[in-house]
Amino acid sequence: MRTLHRIFYAEILKLKRSRLGFILILSPLMAAMLGVMYNLNAEQPGAWPILLSQMAMAHAVLFLPLLSGVLSAFICRYEHANGGWKQLLSLPVSRTGVYISKYVVVATLLLATQLIFMGAVLFIGLLKGIAEPVPWLMLVNSVLNGWLASLPLIALQMLMAIAWASFAAPLAVNVILTLPNLMVIQSKYGIYYPWGQPSLAMLPQNDSFGINVSLETLLFVIGGSFVLFVLAGLAYINRKEI
Amino acid sequence: MSDAFVQTTQLTKRYGSRTAVNQINLELNKQDIYGFLGPNGAGKTTTIRMLLGLIRPTSGSIRMFGKSFPKSRMDVLKKVGSLVESPSYYGHLNACENLETIRRIIDVPAARIDEVLSIVGLTKDAKRVVKGYSLGMRQRLGIAAALLGSPELLILDEPTNGLDPAGILEMRELIKSLPDQYGITVLVSSHLLSEIEQMANRVGIIQHGSILFQDSLEMLQRQAKHHIRLAVSDPRQAAHTISTWGIHAAQHEDLLTISYVPNEQVALIVQQLVQNGHSIYRIVDQRQSLEEIFLSLTGKERS
Ligand SMILES: Nc1ncnc2c1ncn2[C@@H]1O[C@H](COP(=O)(O)OP(=O)(O)OP(=O)(O)O)[C@@H](O)[C@H]1O
Ligand SMILES: [Mg+2]
Fold this sequence. Notes:
The complex is a heterodimer.
Chain A lengths: L3 H11 L5 H18 L9 H35 L2 H6 L5 H33 L8 H28 L4 H11 L2 H5 L11 H6 L12 H25 L3
Helix pairs in contact in A: 1-5, 2-3, 2-5, 3-5, 3-6, 3-7, 5-6, 6-10
Chain B lengths: L5 E10 L2 E7 L2 E2 L4 E5 L6 H8 L7 E6 L2 E3 L3 H5 L2 E4 L11 H12 L4 H9 L15 H13 L5 E5 L7 H18 L2 E6 L2 H5 L4 E6 L2 E7 H6 L3 E7 L2 H9 L5 E4 L2 E5 L3 H13 L4 E8 L2 H8 L6
Parallel strand pairs in B: 4-9, 4-10, 7-8, 8-9
Antiparallel strand pairs in B: 1-2, 1-3, 1-5, 5-6, 10-11, 12-14, 12-15, 13-14
Helix pairs in contact in B: 4-5
Adenosine-5'-triphosphate binds next to strand 2 and helix 1 of chain B.
């Protein structure tokens, strides 16, 4: 594990010239546009939560799950493309270390998106002149919970991205399983659905969707599935024939 | 316990019912250039992938530098540089950045990148994105990557793939210089004996996953059979005459071929043939080429 940070820096270097920045700001940008268009009464009480719900809708239900898949596929793509795996894994690195490094890179990038998203909400709220003070705790909670809830999904997507040499295949699976999100999260079993967890965690509780799960339960389920999927990914990469 | 530098014992890899590598016992000594020779599909790459820990052997064991592998995988791989099949690269990065992704992991001085780039002659193109490289340039980059960590063992799987004649020559000279200059041991695979012959001191020949021959290049050369060829005026009659002395002569058009016999017997044959009225135009002592030995070992006829 001493080499972990070295592998991590190597992964960062591989992201060079990858137009990643565009992917990261895409969803916050769309959210900002939705926020601008929304006819918000800046004087009403609870204007901030309302703005957040509006802006987080597409972001949490659609883009966050999609992004965790895109980034995972992205970080494995150049290993699949031209024999990267065989070169990387015949270096003195542990395969576990490679998995963790790639995972941490994706998780970090997703966190960056979340922070950009939070910036977008702040910007629009101030632009619209919301009367109430900025509810920092609520905002930070929302983006952090959304991020935490994406962690099992990243592990699951990473497993697919490592297993399949094709860039499109894991993405297609991801899109297909993301689309029914709105339906699934309103059902009783929504919290067990990895693709739905980010939106459950990120959208303000007891809001217009009628979603009502305790955050504790959600975090418990998320923690459990995170461990499960990471162990599956580690088992897979350590057995993979290159 | 043997003190070979690299040693495999009964190393086997099966895919379902197909045996890709069958109980092979490779033995490399320090500073060998070991030519690993075999036709397509013989099991060379599969063996090399096991040596690098990319796939698990079905059975058998590997020892490298006196350590068991893959148990001491990290310690062993620190001393190994490799190029397996086609060269690996990240197309969106330039040569320096490609090498830097490796350097960050193996932790060698940054100056080493310029060194290996100049060894393989890529200094000029080092800042170009590798996507735009020719096959030969990628191959050079692959070699540079393999050399980056100053390995004790260099494993090269068909390293001259895609190189032009000048590139092949350079590669050969580079490989030949490694043991003396840097004390590196080299395992180089190829399906061309002529190539191995010009650089290896030890040869292992593999076919259908099994080792057919493993020894020094000299021993391989010594296996070469001599033939004596005679061009005579009436080959059919001459073959008959010779066979009455118990020596078989094969006739190909106007040439007679007899297997190797001592000098006195050659003299006798000539004398008798002349006495029987044959004109002898030519006597040639012909040695079987290594290529022919290889082909007869691997059971393939020259087409
Ligand atoms: N993943 C795999 N699944 C099934 N069979 C395999 C696999 N990898 C290799 N083989 C088989 O193992 C045998 C040896 O293949 P290998 O690639 O080692 O040959 P090689 O000596 O490197 O040949 P070449 O000169 O063509 O590179 C072949 O018959 C091949 O079909
Ligand atoms: Mg091969």
